[in-house]
Amino acid sequence: MTFSALDSELLGPLFAADAMRDIFSDRNRIAMMLRAEAALARAQATLRLAPPELAASLEAISPGNLDIEALGRDTAIAGVPTIPFIKAVREKLPKDLERAFHKGATTQDIVDTALVLQMRDGLQLIERDLARTVTGLVRLARKHRATICVGRTYGQHAVPLTFGYKAALWATGIAESTAELPALKARVLAASLGGPVGTLATFGDKGPALVEAFARELDLAAPPIAWHALRGRMAEAGAWIAIMLGTLAKMAGDVVHLMSTEVGEVAEPHVPGRGGSSAMPHKRNPVGSTVIIAAHEAAKGYVTSLIDAMAVSHERPPGLWHAEWLALPQLFGLASGALREAVAISEGLTVDTERMRKNLNLTQGLLFSDAVASALAARHGRGEAHRILEEAAGKGRDEGKHLRDALLGDPKLAKDKAAIERAFDLAPFADAGALWTDRALEKIDKRNI
Fold it and tell me: Known catalytic residue: 277?
C-alpha cells in the first residue's frame, strides 16, 4: 500500500524530485535521528554530562544497521518513532554506554531536530532550483523585452505589451519568494532540545549551555526557550512553500493559456513522448505547467494542517504535532516537483513571435482603442472621444473593418488623421514594456538571485 504520492513508485516521480524523495525517505529520517543523537552526545561530553565514547559509538551506527520495517511496526504501537528507535539503538551500544544514551532528552527533541535537518537539506534544493528558474526567466525577459504581444485582462484582449514584460513579471514574483528564504531559514532551522516539558530539568543550570552546544554541533540556531509547543516555525515554512508555489502557478497558468490551440504563442520544451494523449496522438499537453498547478492546489490543505497544529495544548499536544509529520514532507515533495518543471519551462520555453504578431490583429485594431481615445481627447474631450470610439468599434464589428479604417472613414475626424495614425504605432507599447522589464530585472539583479 502506498502512503502518499510522494512515496508512490507510480506517481512519486511525477510530483516530486528524486533528490527530495531521498531527503524525506524513512532511511534518511533515521539517519537524521542518529545524527541528532550523536550531536547531543558530543554536546553533553563537552559539558562532562556524558562519556566522550558515546558519540563515536553512535556515529558508527548507520540506518542500515536498523530494521526500519520493524521500527515501523513498533511505531504503530508506541505512537512515535523515537521509542522503538531508542530501543534499537541502545541494543547496538556497549553496555557501559547505554545509560548515558538519550539522557535528559525526549521524543520530540529528536523527531523535531531530525525533521529540521531534513528541511534544511530540502530548502537547499529548493533554493537551487528557484535560482535557476529566476535566471532562466531573466534571460527570457531580456531576449523579449521589446517583443510585442497581446495584453489580456479578464481573459480578453486589452492593450499591447511585451512578452518580456510578462516574463519579468513571472521572474519578479518568484524572486520575491526567493528573497525571503534567508530570513525564513534563520527562524525555522533551530535545534529542538527541552526534555520532557521543555526545561531540561535533568541538567539544572547547565541546560542553556547544553542547548547552545547541541545547536552548534548541528549548525542550527539555538532557541531561547524550547519550541515544543511553539509551532509557528513549521507553519511559516509550509506557508512560504505554498506562496512560492503560487508564484510558480501564476506562470504555469499563463503558459497553459498561451499554449492553447487558439492562442499558440508559446510551447513548453518538447520531450519525446511527453504531453501526449492516449486517444489523441497529435497532442502536446502542458505537462510541466500541470504539475505546478496541481502542486499549488494540493499545498493549501497541508498548510491548513500546519496552521491548525499551532493551537498546542500545554507542553505537548496529542495529534496536532503528529500531523506535521504528514504535511511537511508532502509540501517539500510538491515544491521539488513543481520547481523541476519551472526550471525546464524557464530555460526552454519556445516563444512564437510570429503568432504573437498575428494575434495582435485578431480584434481588428480594438487593442488600440485606449490609445486612440487619449489621442482624440485633446481636441474632443474625454467623454466625446469615448463616444466616438464606441461608435467606430461597433461599426467596425458590423462591417468587418479595422478600427483604424472605421475612424479614418469618418469625415468628422479629418483633422485627427495624424493623431489617429500615431495611436496605432506599436513603438510606444514596446518602449513601455521594455522600460518596466528593465526596471524589474535591475531589481532582481540587485538581490543577487
Answer: yes
pLDDT score for 412 = 83
Per the CB < 8 A criterion, the answer to whether 430 and 360 are in contact is no
For the segment 108-125, the average pLDDT, to the nearest whole number, is: 98
Task: Give the list of residues 6+ apart from residue 213 with CB closer than 8 angstroms, or none.
Answer: 42, 43, 44, 46, 47
Q: To 5 degrees, how large is the angle CA 71–CA 75–CA 81?
A: 80
Please report the sign of the dihedral spanned by the C-alpha atoms of residue 16, residue 22, residue 27, residue 33: negative
* Catalytic pick among 277, 374, 382, 447: 277
Query: For residue 394, which amino acid is it?
Result: G
Of 355, 346, 338, the residue nearest 269 (C-alpha): 346
C-alpha–C-alpha distance, residues 227 and 210, integer Å: 15
The partner residues of 153 in beta bridges, in order of sequence, read 156
Q: Which of 216, 316, 387, 397 is catalytic?
A: 316
Q: What was the pLDDT predicted at 1?
A: 46
For residues 59-85, average pLDDT: 95
Contact 266, 323 (CB under 8 A): no
Which architecture does CATH list for 12-355? Up-down Bundle (1.20)
Reference 146, options 439, 438, 422; nearest CA is 438
Domain limits, CATH 1.20.200.10, in the chain: 12-355
Backbone angles phi, psi at 350, to 5 degrees: -90, 130
63, 29 contact by CB (below 8 A): no
Q: What digits encode the pLDDT tens for the residues 253-298?
A: 999 999 999 999 999 998 765 544 444 344 578 999 999 999 999 9
Residue type for position 328: L
pTM for the model stands at: 0.93
C-alpha cell at 352: 512564437
Cell of 247: 508564484
